[in-house]
Amino acid sequence: MSFLTLDLNLLRVFDAVMTEQNLTRAAGHLAMTQPAVSNAIKRLRESLGDELLIRTAYGVKPTPRAEALWPSVRSALASLEAAVTPETFDVSKAHATFRLAMADATAAFWLPSLMRSIEREAPGVNVRMVPLTTREPRPMLLRGDVDLAVGFFPGVAAQLSSDTSSPIRHERLYSGHYVCVMRRDHPLAKVDLTLENYCTANHLLVSFSGRAHGLVDEALAQIQRERRILLTVNQFFTAGRVVANSDLITVLPKHLIASTGMTDALIHKELPFTLPAVHLDMLWHERDARSPAHKWLRSNLEGMNSVAQRTAPGTTPRSDTY
Questions:
Q1: Which segments constitute the HTH lysR-type domain (predicted)?
Q2: Reported pTM
């Protein structure tokens, strides 16, 4: 295959199909017919000598060659788009779809304000939520599975600040702290929360992976203590419901207690040991850094710091970019 003879329009089709994982949806996005998209992918297969996309019952599945090729294609197309996009950007006339990855509590905390902003300023903008099931969102961004990831990603910010070659960009939205959460009439509700009675209680852990070990267990191990984790769940809303109706206790970021929907049934106490601060970080790929629509989205999330501060007293707004 000679690059000089490659039809670059085929790469736009390839990017759309990889994004949608479905030929029909990609055709709609490109304003093409489905047979035209199929023909374009066939020509690209012949040019590259690889199957690229394999049909399945639910759409298409990329081959390893397609997975390896896509990040470079996306980055190149984003650079071209930024070069030819006018400097002026009218958000009221913009049409864009953003795929965001957040945990349920983070989404409940941020989405209402973002939706009000979109309804008011950007009627052509759509948002698609993708489940966040990991503390390491960089592979999702590198693959182009999502446009933005928001959440608590321990260690990622420090790595990004020291790795200037990484294509992932980062901004800290704010910092808060963890507290112990229990139902209002829990046996520990009216007594001092000591290290002893904390460790002897039954615990619930919010774990995306289902692994029964977290930051609390690491902190306890440093002081030669441990706790019994009776239950792990992967949603903060579920955690709130269970804790409000049992003798289990849990540890949550203070600013996310309200997102459980059980605020009236819960109380929180300061922990009898030290945990690192909990940070809410925003991550995106450099291919989107200059996109006017993406800039608008990021600026909206940045602007919600004041909302977060009012909603969750004790959090500290941050705007450190790495």
A1: 6-63
A2: 0.65
